[in-house]
Design brief:
Blueprint lengths: L1 E5 L5 E4 L3 E5 L17 E9 L4 E7 L3 E8 L1 E6 L4 E5 L2 E6 L4 E7 L6 E8 L9 E6 L9 E6 L7 E2 L5 E7 L4 E5 L5 E9 L2 E3 L2 E3 L4 E5 L3 E6 L3 E9 L2
Parallel strand pairs: 13-14
Antiparallel strand pairs: 1-20, 2-3, 3-4, 4-11, 5-10, 6-9, 6-11, 7-8, 7-10, 9-12, 13-15, 15-22, 16-21, 17-20, 17-22, 18-19, 18-21
Length: 236
Amino acid sequence: MKTILHKSNTRGHANHGWLNSYHTFSFAGYYDPERVHFGKLRVLNDDTVAPGRGFGTHPHDNMEIISIPLSGDLEHKDSMGNTTVIKQGDVQVMSAGTGVFHSEYNKNQDQEVKFLQIWVFPNKKNVEPRYDQISIGEIAEKNAFYQILSPNADDQGVWIHQDAWFHIGEFDQGAAAEYSIHKEGNGVYAFVLDGEVEIGEQKLATRDGLGILETDAFQLKASSPSRVLLMEVPMN
């Protein structure tokens, strides 16, 4: 098994006042030639948006965009006619395809909203734009990895135009779980949302990331109560 470690304090950082953002991979004004992407995973932004503020209407195309709120309420509007709010426990996906405009604002005037903004390169270009969101409350499991995203519309979670699988694990201290790769040649980027875990010989803390390559499976053990996001993507 080969690994690539990204400690939380090595991420790119931009504080715009209304937006405090940490970039695992090169984004906007942050560029590191060694950290442009992990396979088809292009963007992993850890964003905090001030009360009542947000991203004005802007375009995207040919990208699979996933938003995972960690706290607060994020209001989404787009050129497909969707107006909705996503909150902790929801997962949102947007296939930008031939082109879409959208905005995202903190719906509340009295608290921040924190969310992960994730971009994945698609395996099909110029598809018809689409939007979906789910609540993961009914599929969440304790001390196990549960699937929140896949390539299959009839599978558990949301789906995207890519051979990618996302899972979340919520673990008590001392709990362990194994993850098996879905497709040969894929890698997994593990991102610790909260707590401390061990993957192989590597110890990870909150907001650390670990790229995992050249293996069919790996085991994670929680050193403290923890939540971890696994993003399995093609590496070429």
